[in-house]
Design brief:
single chain, about 550 residues, mainly alpha, cell membrane
Length: about 550
């Protein structure tokens, strides 16, 4: 178990640095092009296109299928070298083909996601797309190399290399500000060179991120060579498994498409695509640091136990992982919720925008715990080679997201449209998680649910006074009119105050949360304490 704690600590530290630099990247990008405006939304839609394809590649194929298959291939006489060489060759061909197709259909893709953009905004989005879509190839290589490293228990590089991407982006966006000035929210002030700097910077960062992973490959002990002989090593089974996950992710992308088409109606004066992506980045901070960092090493172990038919150990792994992850994400989620105004001030232009944007973040945070638990449960199905069941319960979530998005479009005012869509996604995720846990419990013959539910109850009890303490601190500091919302007139100072205010308010909430758990003697604290100690320099 110490190896899992060490791996989680490495992933957590890397994710923390990556997310912090990602926030700085977002701050600099907002300083360059704004967050409430047509250029910002045009870039957000274009830059999201390769991310959507990356989601299909990573979640739909690699995480769901490749890690379990690579684990199984380790028993081959060559340690899986031939098998992995074939996968890499096939993957490179697929990524290159997907990139070319996306480039050919760039105008249609932009219209598909942003039909409600003005003609000038569509043209700008298409220009950005031509610069951003090559990211598909580099995202694919990054995911394929990274997931193979994870399967071979080389966890660090996959988490740390995004820091380089963020640093390059920060430098590029600062160059943009130096050359053209900041806050370019007026479309009439844009020209092709400005689009090239922003779009080219985004793609260069992803390319470097993928290239850096190659330096870690030696740690796998594998040597790769191009191999186009794709028959005879079980790739047909990979195709069958990937078919269900591909359909699952496509269904999710359809839901995301509907959300984007709905939200773009608010583009210009209200929170829209760019703001939702920024809020999602903040939301992903606790999810990535805790759910992914703790869950990823567990997933490799779960896959090994499942391959050996050690089902009782799988049940224990899943239950322990769920409890430890829930302990961290519930506390950090409450801390972010009560500090939502300072947190959103980091990527908005003034306090009024922060107050308007805060509900979007809060509505996303409603689904933080369910999404974190789903990460663990879904990958347990993958460990058993079952990709059909996750597809079926994901269809429920997709149907609910689409329904809630259309309902939001019909009844929500434009200034709250983004928040309504985010809330619908969170509720849909909650329903999906409940269904997934129920199915997995029946499949494994138990999942220690009474103990896990009792743990969740303890965490919820601790979260109530923590929330009140954090909110009280926010009010004592002046609420939306105080210094935590940044009203000095200096962009840098305002965003710095927002970050500091988030830290102060969040720290109060987290301390109260921890104190209550200590008072009620929550047994999960021992596992959490052991995990935290892995971050200390002495370890």
């Amino acid at each position: 178990m110490s190896s899992l704690g060490r791996a989680s600590a490495i992933l957590g530290a890397g994710t923390l640095v990556s997310r912090i630099t990602g926030l700085v990247r977002t701050i600099v990008l907002v300083a360059a092009i704004g967050s409430f405006g047509r250029p910002a939304d045009a870039f957000a839609v274009a830059n999201q296109l390769p991310n959507n394809v990356f989601t299909i590649i990573q979640t739909g194929i690699l995480t769901a299928v490749i890690i379990p298959q690579i684990v199984k291939s380790a028993v081959h006489s060559d340690g899986g070298r031939a098998y992995i060489s074939k996968l890499f060759t096939l993957g490179t061909v697929v990524f290159l083909g997907a990139t070319v197709l996306a480039m050919l259909f760039a105008p249609q893709l932009v219209v598909l996601y942003a039909e409600k953009f003005t003609p000038d905004q569509l043209a700008m989005g298409t220009a950005f797309a031509y610069w951003c879509l090559p990211q598909i190839f580099f995202y694919g290589l990054y995911a394929l190399i990274g997931e193979t490293l994870n399967a071979k228990r080389v966890f660090g590089p996959y988490t740390w290399t995004p820091v380089a991407n963020n640093v390059i982006s920060i430098i590029g966006f600062l160059v943009f500000i130096a050359l053209f000035g900041g806050n370019r929210s007026d479309m009439l002030t844009w020209d092709p060179s400005m689009i090239a700097v922003i779009g080219g910077t985004a793609t260069l960062g992803i390319a470097v991120q993928a290239a850096l992973l190659l330096f870690a490959w030696r740690a796998t002990g594998l040597r790769l060579r191009p191999d186009f002989r794709w028959r005879g090593v079980g790739l047909g089974q990979v195709g069958t498994l990937a078919g269900w996950t591909f359909l699952m992710v496509i269904a999710g992308q359809i839901a995301g498409l509907i959300q984007t088409r709905v939200v773009t109606a608010a583009s210009g004066e209200h929170p829209s695509t760019a703001l939702m992506m920024a809020a999602w980045l903040v939301f992903m901070l606790p999810y990535s640091i805790f759910a992914i960092s703790i869950g990823t090493p567990y997933f490799t172990q779960i896959a090994e136990h499942a391959a050996a038919d050690r089902h009782e150990e799988v049940r224990g792994d899943v239950a322990r992982c769920m409890r430890v992850v829930a302990l961290f994400v519930l506390g950090s989620g409450v801390a972010l919720a009560v500090a939502s105004v300072p947190a959103t001030r980091i990527f908005t232009d003034n306090p009024a925008q922060a107050i308007q944007a805060a509900p979007v973040l809060i509505c996303y945070l409603v689904g933080l715990v369910p999404l974190s638990l789903l990460f663990i449960v879904q990958r347990t199905f993958y460990a058993y080679g079952d990709t059909r069941t996750p597809f079926l319960f994901t269809l429920v979530q997709v149907a609910l997201i689409i329904g809630f998005s259309l309902l939001a479009a019909a009844v929500a005012p434009l200034d709250q449209l983004a928040a309504a869509v985010a809330l619908g996604q969170s509720v849909a995720g909650l329903v999906q998680t409940v269904i997934a846990i129920w199915i997995l419990r029946n499949r494994l013959g138990g999942l220690e649910l009474p103990r896990t539910l009792l743990s969740l109850l303890r965490f919820a009890i601790a979260a109530v006074p923590a929330g009140f303490a954090g909110w009280g601190t926010f009010l004592l500091l002046g609420a939306g009119a105080g210094w935590t919302a940044g009203q000095t007139g200096s962009t840098f100072v305002d965003k710095l105050l927002g970050a500091v205010g988030t830290g102060v308010i969040g720290l109060v909430a987290v301390v109260v949360y921890a104190v209550v758990l200590i008072v009620i003697r929550a047994p999960e604290l021992s596992a959490a304490t052991g995990l935290v100690k892995r971050f200390l320099p002495s370890r």
